[in-house]
Amino acid sequence: MVEIQPAPTPKHTITSTTIDSLFNNNDNSNTLNSIPSHKLTPAGHKETPRSTPLVIVEPDTPKIVKGPTVATSKSSHSQDLDRSVVKHYSTAQDPSAPPLGISLPVMASVAPEGSQFDARQFDAKMNELLGSDGQDFFTSYDEVFESFDAMGLQENLLRGIYAYGFEKPSAIQQRGIVPFCKGLDVIQQAQSGTGKTATFCSGILQQLDYGLVECQALVLAPTRELAQQIEKVMRALGDYLGVKVHACVGGTSVREDQRILSAGVHVVVGTPGRVFDMLRRQSLRPDYIKMFVLDEADEMLSRGFKDQIYDIFQLLPPKIQVGVFSATMPPEALEITRKFMNKPVRILVKRDELTLEGIKQFHVNVEKEEWKLETLCDLYETLAITQSVIFVNTRRKVDWLTDKMRSRDHTVSATHGDMDQNTRDIIMREFRSGSSRVLITTDLLARGIDVQQVSLVINFDLPTQPENYLHRIGRSGRFGRKGVAINFVTKDDERMLYDIQKFYNVVIEELPANVADLL
After folding, report:
1. Are the beta carbons of 103 and 116 closer than 8 angstroms?
2. What is the C-alpha separation between 231 and 197, in angstroms, rounded?
3. Are 361 and 473 spatial neighbours (Cβ–Cβ below 8 Å)?
4. DSSP secondary-structure letter at 139?
5. What is the residue range of the motif Q motif (predicted)?
6. Hey, which residues does 293 pair with through a beta bridge?
7. DSSP 8-state code for residue 216
8. Best CA proximity match to 509, nearest among 41, 106, 138
9. How far apart are CA 303 and CA 497, in angstroms?
10. How far is CA 334 from the centre of its chain?
11. Quick one: which of 507, 457, 447, 449 has its CA closest to 485?
């Protein structure tokens, strides 16, 4: 770990196994209308008893005063927050996610109460905060955008969004992208994998001045792996914009970071320790930073990064847009929002209370992307036993996989959004009638296909958002009311598999050899 030296004088100061054979094959569980009673966490974590609420009395909060700088933004952070606040909080914490590159443990223990996001509990806390504060802390923003095209985004940003595989914005993207693009401070609270990353990446990419090769946006994440994943998403979405983005994380060469930063970047994504070190060395110049994002804020604060976040923030310009993205809102996260943010837009998207109970879910470790095709061909005879749907993430991949399967004399049909409506209708009519038995498609059609006979769903690609996992295999009256779901998992997919399991409180075990017997 890099030893951090004392910071330069800041511009302002702050004080500071199975679970009943995974799912019982119960013919009575045809409807999906309730959350399963079991709550799961990764093996190895001890069950945390329910904690009693604490009453925390805060002393007067010091007002932040910042020095002059050249950067400008649309929101000001000079609000007076010198008030005492009494709040009730639960001390239960989420277990941390496993690092990437490690086989995921079977999630077999019971999760602590409070580890899953509870919207009503949050509302109670927030109402008490607002009542004690005596001020309208949040800005309301109720517009919902059903498509990316309606959001007023740059054409080249839209190209990047569609090329990445997004076709329709998720619930949080429908509400969150536009306020961020308008320069408003934003608090977005939702589970991991609901599309938060693409939300703030799109907001940042929309606002960058690409003619100015200086760091204009800083994103902090709790782990190296997450920071590097955000860098990948940012680079992919900004592919047609010419964005320059760099991940500053521990465990990598400091000199290489300094070299890249000196050459100029638009966006820096990093972990607090390395980012602060780059600021301390003056390798990362903060003068032009106008956007500051905390991703997985609750996890970052639970890992003890609070002081480092404060140290970083006090070196940033006084007028800066702040986005806080978090699955829960512990006391520390609320404290940050009160100190750093100016009338933030609060965006809370509740998870559909649907269950995947009754669906047997498995994964196959394919290691590499190139090995997925061979694995699918090995399973083809099993696929043909029943009607099956294979999901991939892009329209182009639908065409590619269809050609590959047909070249090996496997009979498949395919449909995606680029096909005209008449062709799609014919293909779906054939599939519903049973004359075609294996269908390759994308998420766009996952919500609209209603074929009762489907009992096997294969995620050739894991969905880019866990909520789409439900639409693919578990929505009532659609896929997977009972049946089997098989997920192909590469090394790069392990974090997403973990997110899906955590998101839906399910175990996704390794595929057994007798898969045909399960259908």
Report:
1. no
2. 10
3. yes
4. B
5. 146-174
6. 219, 323
7. -
8. 106
9. 23
10. 20
11. 457
Domains delineated in the chain:
116-348 (3.40.50.300), 359-518 (3.40.50.300)
223, 271 in Cβ contact below 8 A? yes
For 213, what's the count of Cα atoms within 13 Å in the CB-facing half-sphere?
10
Rounded to two decimals, what is the model's pTM? 0.51
Residue 368 CB neighbours (<10 A): 9
- CA separation for the pair 111, 23 (Å, rounded): 18
Q: Are 178 and 145 in contact (CB under 8 A)?
A: yes
Contact 225, 314 (CB under 8 A): no
Contact at 8 Å (CB) between 463 and 194? no
Closest among 365, 235, 217 to 295, alpha carbons compared: 217
Exposure class string for 450-476: b at 16+ Cβ within 10 A, else e:
ebeebbbbbbbbbbbbbbbbbbbbbbe
| Triad 127, 131, 134: Cα angle to 5° | 135
From residue 181, alpha-carbon distances to 20, 103, 130 in Å are 47, 38, 26
Distance linking the first and last C-alpha atoms of the chain: 51
Distance of CA 519 to the CA centre of its chain: 32
Give the type of residue at 44.
Answer: G
Helix (H) or strand (E) holding 427: helix 421-433
Long-range contacts of 12-15 (CB under 8 A, 24+ apart): 12/64, 12/65, 12/66, 12/67, 12/314, 12/318, 13/314, 14/62, 14/64, 14/310, 14/313, 14/314, 14/339, 15/62
How many CB atoms are located within 10 Å of the residue 54 CB? 11
pLDDT mean by block of 10 residues, the chain; 519 residues: 48 37 35 32 36 35 37 36 28 35 30 38 56 55 88 96 88 90 87 76 97 96 84 94 94 92 96 94 95 86 80 92 79 72 77 57 92 90 79 93 92 84 79 85 63 79 79 50 84 89 82 75
Residues counted in the chain: 519
Count of other CB atoms within 10 angstroms of residue 114: 18
